[in-house]
Specification:
Layout (H helix, E strand, L loop, with lengths): L9 E5 L5 E5 L4 H12 L2 H4 L4 H27 L9 H54 L2 H16 L7 H6 L7 H25 L8
Antiparallel strand pairs: 1-2
């Protein structure tokens, strides 16, 4: 509009978040506002803007300048828009980046040291727990093998034939379990012995026991 119509244009926009945007074709919003007020309101009220309006506008300009400077500095830190900087400004920017890197490294180192201290503390706690468990095992451990060996020896002494084969146990059964069989076997043996002795005496020679 300013170019096509050869007019003085001023535009003020407030976003939903309350952010202010403005545009003025003659690079002086204040002059455009003064001209607007002179045309819209009585001359007596707008000849000299009130002091409060001037102060507010000056504060606005200061804040706007700070915001622009911060945005420009942020872009420079990101490596943007460096062409307009002088060698001195580039050196200052480099020093600022070095200071920032040192601060970041210091913070990172401190964080790693804190983590290392925490790990050492946990290691000491685990070593202490291990020492206590080892001490308990040393106190309780020697008794169990001796007790187990003693119990095994006692069990072996009370039943010495517990590990013998089954046929050995049958041979070692008391005679009282089957008296007729034992008695009969004994009588046959004595009779055979008497017959052998009698045959030897009569014949004067050796006679086999089975004859």
């Amino acid at each position: 509009l300013s170019v096509l119509c050869d007019a003085e244009v001023a535009l003020i926009i407030f976003s939903n978040r309350g952010k202010l945007f403005e545009f003025s074709s003659n690079n002086s919003m204040l002059k455009t506002l003064e001209r607007y007020q002179k045309c819209s309101y009585p001359v007596a009220e707008v000849v000299v803007p009130s002091k409060e309006i001037q102060n507010s506008y000056q504060e606005y300009l200061k804040l706007k300048g700070k915001v622009e400077a911060l945005q420009r500095s942020q872009r420079n830190l990101l490596g943007e828009d460096l062409g307009a900087l002088s060698s001195r400004e580039l050196e200052q920017l480099e020093n600022q980046l070095d200071v920032s890197l040192k601060h970041i490294r210091s913070t990172k180192t401190q964080l790693m040291l804190d983590q290392l201290c925490d790990l050492k503390r946990k290691e000491q706690m685990l070593q202490e727990s291990n020492r206590i468990l080892k001490q308990k095992l040393q106190e309780v451990g020697p008794e169990n093998p001796l007790q187990l060996s003693w119990d095994n020896n006692a069990a072996g002494s009370s039943n010495p034939y517990s590990r013998q084969p089954a046929h050995t146990e049958s041979l070692l059964q008391p005679m009282g379990f089957d008296p007729p069989l034992q008695i009969g076997y004994t009588a046959v043996s004595v009779e055979q012995m008497n017959q052998g002795a009698l045959a030897h005496t009569v014949n004067g020679g050796f006679v086999n026991g089975w004859m």
